[in-house]
């Protein structure tokens, strides 16, 4: 097997084709979250652990990196500053000088006061591990055991918390219970409700909001993707820049259109078409296709539920003939509840399938057959 160099190892906390969150020039749409952190900083009410939450792809990791760079570039006597006796004024922004030595080192992952905890590379299997392992959290504990040479802040970013395995979560809990002085943990989580309650209770929540359409378009343009005319991707991503990038790079709009066309034939959907969609998800090489297909089926079910509940007349179609398909399969609130329940049930089945390594193509086919079954009167 070919040797993988350090430069060739993919970064697990970066969407394919997008700049890494530490390289993002400007964070859009999260002014409230930034203001909440700055208020705590300036009033000397700094909590040692911040849970940065919100929908996937709205800038949570970018916010974590902005906070980290900000803290690393602050003078040693920072926090609760005022202009008396020549003290610098309290900062009003998280902007950090990109030429500051600590910021430059953080940018290259060479800053000794910064630790990044994320999924490690499995050199034997030549791929990223599925979870953040306990060994990575032990490295974090060792990092906090060291003293900062200049007395400044030490910052750790965990991206993302949802990927901690059980042993790693328990090890992190011990760090949260006995935090060293002048340390900040920035914990990125897409689904905080699934984390240990004892972890959540020891963190202050910093909520990131979904982006409105104009800011999403601006953020996508900053990431190098032009959304002009791509109504389907904008609608399916629901304000998430990360989701829009993944959809665009995986032909998500076309795949969703194929699912809508298949659903329109339910009940009694075309089995050969369903098998064709499922077969494209088979094998490790098609893991990305599997993930996007799972997400698109979930999107379809949730759009069915929302359509039935709202009965809108101004629905924005994310695929050709979508309105007619949704109207057929979800004509009322009772149907909406059925689709919402199916979305919840299939999410649990997918989670179980991942845990026991079921064949991805079989999982997709099962999801499509469950959709067909639910379409029956």
CATH C-level class of the largest domain is Alpha Beta
- Lateral arrangement of strands in the main beta sheet: 2-5-6-1-7
Biggest beta-sheet profile: 5 strands, parallel
Number of helices: 15
Helices and strands: which structural class?
A: alpha/beta
DSSP strand tally = 7
Shape: globular
Write down the secondary-structure element order.
HEHHEEEHEHEHEHHHHHHHHH
- What name goes with the CATH superfamily of the largest domain? P-loop containing nucleotide triphosphate hydrolases
CATH architecture of the largest domain: 3-Layer(aba) Sandwich
Low-confidence stretches: 80-84
Radius of gyration: 23 Å
Helix content: 40-55%
Distance between the termini: 54 Å
Strand content: 5-15%
Predict the CATH topology of the largest domain: Rossmann fold
Calculate the mean pLDDT score and round it. Answer: 87
The total number of structural domains is 2
Brief summary of the model shown:
With 377 residues, the chain is of the alpha/beta class. The chain has helices at residues 31-42, 60-72, 101-107, 134-145, 166-177, 197-200, 213-222, 231-237, 241-249, 252-263, 271-279, 287-310, 322-329, 333-355, 360-374; strands spanning 49-53, 114-117, 121-122, 127-128, 154-159, 183-189, 204-207. The longest helix has 24 residues, at 287-310.
